[in-house]
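Service request form, structural biology core

Requester: graduate student, group of Dr. S.
Request type: structure prediction, single chain
Budget code: on file
Notes: please return the result as structure tokens.

Sequence provided:
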Amino acid sequence: MYNQYLNNRFNKKLTQQNDVNRLLKIHPKITHRIPIHNNQTHSNLTNFTPPNNTIYHFDKNISTTINFDIPKEDNPKDKIPKILFKEVPIPSYSQSDKFDLNTINENISALHMDIFTSDVIVETNISSIKKKNIRKIFHVYQEKYADNLYPTGFGDFIRSCFFIIQFSNKYSFKYEIIINHPIAQFLLKFSSNYSPNSNSSLILNNNVYMFPDSNWYESIFDNQNYIERFMLIKQKFNLFVEHLCNLPLLNGCVFSYNILFPCDDTSIEECNIIRSLLEPSREICEKVDNHLSNLSLIPNQFIVLHIRSGDSYLKNENKIFDSHYFEIIKNEIYKIISTNQYGNSILLIADNNEIKILLNDFFPNIKFLVYNITHLGEKVQLEYEKVKNTMIDFFLMSKSSSIYSLTSYPHGSGFSYWCAKIFGIPYKCKYIR
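Core staff response, request fulfilled:
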């Protein structure tokens, strides 16, 4: 019947022969002919023994069912035989093969497979948040969190804002970003409501939980060691979802903080949202304008050199520089100056005053300010003037035409990177080992 059907429909002997050959070669390692009869079930492989030269070893018998169901309707598409797929044992490779699947668990850690976590798993985890009846996420930046955890720096806070905005928009959660941190004193939106000793601040301190893990995995560098892009670990996303599910729920709201990198490219709309959050107070605006005027710098007509030597310098734990490191910094600055149109309009911003003074002997035309700044996290005691000067540095950078960063961290410097992102400033960052 099957042969007759092909002849009637196509009238091509070659097509018939090709189909028969295809069925006979379903598995190139099994030279066993399968008889085909309409409306019959076959399990003729139960006693099959593979040839001695096969590269596969079958641990148990195999059976399969091929059902050719040819409808009687006239539609040719409906008359194509339907093959029902059945589960079959997966063969293991013989010892002669070069790669043994049975030992893959021993090598899995070297493959870093968790950076390719399936989106299906992510979607499933998101449903667990919905089941918890979580409708709104409060993203809170403050000095200390429950379980005696402390935040990292200002750049980490900005990137976490991008993450929570993208996360909430993608999965239909409401969100609100709250700054319950001393930097609030210098931000227009938060300065009037911030009081470090108020009841609301103390309540937040004790009831906001931090997800401390970063999803940064590694940076990709060009041939000159400039950072081109970041590689992220998607598994951290699932752990963050679990973190949200374990938070105390208050009227459909949870209060949390994280330092995760955004998973998608940042949009202009997202940058505008964060710029509105970080709009400087009148005091900061006046300070920035005065500094630019005193340094004879015109907004958008000067470049910034940002040197990030490390937290030990930022927290005044170290004031000594390795001579080799300093020589590399000098050489990099020579290159930047020689290739930039604003050669005489360069503002040096660094995480310590010592390197500014040392570099001034070699680059007397570079401009800089000497004042004390501070790390905005890491359990540092935050003093008013130091916090203000740190925010001034940030908004001075925002007035530049481009930013060149030299950092001792392979993940770059969030302080300058995210400033460049939200203000649309050309940016390059080089990792100095």
